[in-house]
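B., you asked whether I could sanity-check this one before it goes into the benchmark set. Here's the sequence:
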Amino acid sequence: PVARTLVAHTEAVLDQLERAEAYLAAAGTKLTGTLRIGAFPSAARAILPPALVALGRDHPGLELTVAEVDPVHAADLLRAGELDAALTHDYDRVPQPEHHALTSAVVLAEPMYLASARPPGDLDHPVASFRDDTWVMGSPGTLCRLAAERICQAAGFLPRIRHQIDDDATVLSLVVAGQGVTIVPRLATMDPPSGLVLTPLPDVRRLRLTHRRGADAHPAIAAFRHAVHTAVAYQPPAGPAPAAES
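And here's what the prediction gave me:
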């Protein structure tokens, strides 16, 4: 109990330090220093490039660094000060845990798709119609893997996983090659291979911008937030048309 109380006081102190640092940074005439960004693969590919271009153009004195980080690890890296901001995500079936030292805001809610090489046999229960197929999923312990497994479990079965791949382009190429089916969010469908069938699911993934509590007013965080929102607003539509009833 004493340790928990001490942690609560420590997080309050760190919050105030973040606010003080934000105040000092805002008092400067130019935005300088290093902004360390973490992002999961599909956000790093689809969201970060235009956001980084805009930040570099508007704030040339700001040094930007990016590390690919699964959201499972982003919270610890932010709390430890190894990252300043991170693009994270959570799912309807895998909600984001609360971290008292961090704050998070949704910047994009994207639909989920069942990706396959052929249309599902039952459009009312598309995931269940592939219960006897092999599946392509992310590495154990990643949020995308956990979310996909829970969607399959809700459909009444445990997926038989043949391939464990984290790169979306590779996953979709394996699906088209007949190596299995998978579940992907919208950002993974921006440049799909020919022959891919996408069937919309009711599940949603939320892309979030997460940083340490107290850093909201930091000009570098505010600039990054604006750049991310702008990049999200200009996202192209998803890939192939979803499966339709014959």
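One thing to flag: The longest strand covers residues 197-212. Otherwise nothing jumped out at me.
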